[in-house]
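input
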Amino acid sequence: MRVLFAGLPEKSHVYTMVPLAWALTAAGHEVLMANAPSLTEVVTGAGLVAAPVGSDHDLHRDMAVARDSQDADVANWSHLGYGDIDHAGLVARYRISVPYGFARYNDPILDDLVALARDWRPDLVVRDPIAYAGGIAARACGAAHARLLWCADVYGQARATFVELARDMPEEQRVDPLADWIDERGRPYGVRCDEELLNGQFTLDTLPPSLRPASDLRTVSVRYIPYNGRAVREQWLREEPKRPRVCVTLGRTNTEAYGGDYVAVPDILRSLSRLDAEIVAALLPEQTDRLGELPANVRAVSGVALSTLLPSCAAVVHHGGWGTFSTALVNAVPQLALSTLVADQELRGRSLEEAGAGFFLHHSESDPDRVADLARRLLDDPSHAAAARRLRDESAAMPSPYDIVPDLADLVAGD
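output
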């Protein structure tokens, strides 16, 4: 079987795809990772075959200028279930999200991706949930087509809501900006938009079922396997911590794409240092450079893979990103997310809070003393650790990427 991965042109999204790509390769299938040229070294660094397509997007330039866009209503996809929004609200959302988000990610790679798919002839295309170019390419070459989620399936949920609400609208009001864009971009290849193209023939979901939004889509559960790129198990991580270890990490995206962090890291570290704990700030070099002198129980490190650090931690304070959230989840680490509202981050944070395995705070509420108080509660109240273990066990019961490879082959053969 030939499998073409069509990722969103963002490093963290490619990282989510790597374990499944490894599993397919190890099982003897041919794998090609298509993405914008800037992601080529990320793919080859993972030991996979890269296929650069099209050109790089320029979204990061605008993101850094419009930092507040992460908290705009249109960026928050956490409240789009049936009954949460009306038809006009979803139309308005698509009217903004398509040209300013989806199209700017997809248009630069689409034509070259279709040409690659028609030349290489994959049996299966696995794409990012908003890499709609992958769906067009799959349809254009006759391949089966699946989505691999890096989020709770808020995009599928929003689409289901839209379809349900549109049924009750007069014909003249059934506008669909998302379908119109897909039709326009797919027309040269004989591709028209339909719900299967938007949602895939099946969805690969790594969230434990108890944390997922309701969905009628065909779903294949697969365990999340952390991949952080280059990883070294440092000498100090081989030693048992003498006090509970709390990791503070803010990921890459806010610094690299949005021009900086949304919380006062030095102030938070000083407040956390009052806990009877070892604080490890796993940050980018440009973040650690701004910390100044640190309290004795605070260690700042750069380049430490979370998959090597979090197994030794009793709690983690982070920015709400998917990789950090999921790596903490599969390691049973209670979490405090200091997040923006972009994509599904509020939904995931609230779901984790409802499960008892952590807390969610909007970054504007992240007063250092409040952060320290919530971190103390994560350490002192054993119910949070117990809830985190329940979610870890739920995740561990899901099949691994390697386990589902035969199922993928069967699904492709059946389609």
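quick obs: The mean pLDDT is 93.
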